[in-house]
Amino acid sequence: MHYMVNLESRLEEVRCLIDGGEYFSINRARQYGKTTMLHALARYLEDDYCVLSLDFRMLSHEDFESEASFVSAFAREVMAAVGGEDVPAGILDRLKAFADGEQKQAKLARLFICLSEWCRGTSKPIVLMIDEVDTASNNGVFLDFLAQLRGYFNQRTTRPTFQSVILAGVYDIRNLKQKIRKDSEHRMNSPWNIASEFDVDMSFTAEDIAGMLRDYEADCRTGMDISSIAELIYEYTSGYPFLVSRLCRILDEGFSHSGKLKFAGEVWTESGIREAVSLLIAEKNSLFESLSNKLEDYPKLRNVLSELLFKGKNITYNPDDEATDTAVMFGFVRICDGYVVVANRIFETRLYNMFLAAGEMQETEIYKAALHDKNQFVQNGHLNMRKVLERFVEHFDELYGDQDRRFYEEDGRRYFLLYLRPIINGTGNYYIESRTRNMERTDVIVDYCGEQFVIELKVWRGNAYHERGEEQLAAYLEYYHLDRGYMLSFNFNKKKEIGVKELRIGKKVLVEAVV
């Protein structure tokens, strides 16, 4: 309500579609700013258009039971969305009759004749916006409603209709159609095939976030470095609107892990943001609950995410592949250079935690070993990462030392994260550096009580490759302004030398562990 990203440029993009008479869908993941966009758009258009802003959440299950009940509910919501002075008296009386169920033949065709006459006589073109169309996902009457919209759109030169129609929801119409009909009754032609592409980027940039923070700083005077704080918030969220807003709210409330209120100057800092990220990842909220539910409902989606997270598999985006298309639709992933990547660091860590918290994972011997060891690694509030690696090497060799190459490549990294999680859980966080996630190499960044640790996890590919990895790690330490880094190599060579050693590359210290 008080501090928002400036949506002006996005609203102008959407208005261009509306001015052009386009019909389109805004399909984005949960809590991605769809409703906020529609509310802002209604205000933005009010001088030139009559905007009917509806929300299908206001309709009950019974409203979708039959054509008559839907017509009545739709007319009721239209009347609630506009003032009486905006509707010609005759049209208003007919809408009221539909809403009150007085029309003996309350058919969609009759409702649309009424709406068409309204569109013919109005001084302002009418824009219809419907939020939460997912509510209609299991109801066949909604397809008939879409068919009426399509029919009038195709005949708009002779039968006046809405200037533009916008449907907003998580699912696109193809997915709605699949949920309504049985597999044997699917049709290839969608009743919403008239829709134009909606490619407006609704995520926030670092500049968007900085603009919002400038408004906040003008009121609160925290002394924050607005540019660097905005960049850091963007690094963790990739501009996902809910995550940006929620993170800023946690920072504004100023609570630490201990529950003590902190001063604003302590909160709006790099360490404050890391602590806020930790609190956000650990909390229960509707967005995370939705993500968790989707993993249960879509097993193929779960498999794709597991391969992406733990195996470092490069997955090419294919819109015809149900699993990857579903992952994009629900906001788990985004498309980068044609490949599927996890949407943001916060989702990534939460997803890792979901997978690693699964019952079968916590029954593994390596997880039990971590629980047994967890009190050994923190001295005076500092995490001893070298000791973490030493103990992991001992346990891993004892438990899995005789496994084959495939085990190292597909499960080694999973077991390190499984070992790490209970050690830092509740106090620290970890995320994967997306630029280095692949089948051969993964960099894990650990935040713990204001300190950062970079651990490179890699599969052994020979000495030359290993030396290049050391140089790359040294470069990453420079990027993160760190003097010490860590490397964990999974080596399937029978003559490997297991253990942990330290070496210097220039001014950097590398702690190398081999299992």
Write structural notes for this entry.
With 515 residues, this protein is of the alpha/beta class. The protein folds into three domains: 178 residues, 3-Layer(aba) Sandwich (Rossmann fold); 78 residues; 150 residues, no CATH class. The protein has 21 helices and 14 strands. A six-stranded mixed beta sheet has the order 9-10-11-12-14-13, with helices on both faces. The protein has a four-stranded parallel beta sheet with strand order 1-4-3-2. A two-stranded antiparallel sheet has the order 5-6. Helix 8 crosses helix 9 and helix 18 packs parallel to helix 20. It starts with 7 loop residues before the first helix and ends with a strand. About 2% of the residues have low confidence.
List keywords for this structure.
single chain, 515 residues, alpha/beta, Rossmann fold, six-stranded mixed β-sheet, four-stranded parallel β-sheet, 21 helices, elongated
Mean pLDDT: 87
Structural class, by secondary structure, is alpha/beta
Q: Separation of termini?
A: 53 Å
Q: CATH topology of the largest domain, which one?
A: Rossmann fold
Fourth CATH level, the homologous superfamily of the largest domain: P-loop containing nucleotide triphosphate hydrolases
**In the residues, how many domains can be counted?**
3
Q: Per DSSP, what share of the residues sits in E-state strands of 2 or more residues? A: 15-25%
How are the elements arranged and paired?
Elements: H1 8-19, E1 23-27, H2 34-45, E2 50-55, H3 67-81, H4 89-99, H5 108-121, E3 126-131, H6 140-154, E4 164-169, H7 173-180, H8 206-220, H9 226-237, H10 241-253, H11 264-267, H12 270-282, H13 286-297, H14 299-310, H15 322-329, E5 333-336, E6 339-342, H16 345-356, H17 359-362, H18 365-373, E7 378-379, E8 382-383, H19 385-400, H20 405-424, E9 428-432, E10 441-448, E11 451-459, H21 463-479, E12 484-490, E13 499-505, E14 508-514
Parallel strand pairs: 1-4, 2-3, 3-4, 11-12, 12-14
Antiparallel strand pairs: 5-6, 7-8, 9-10, 10-11, 13-14
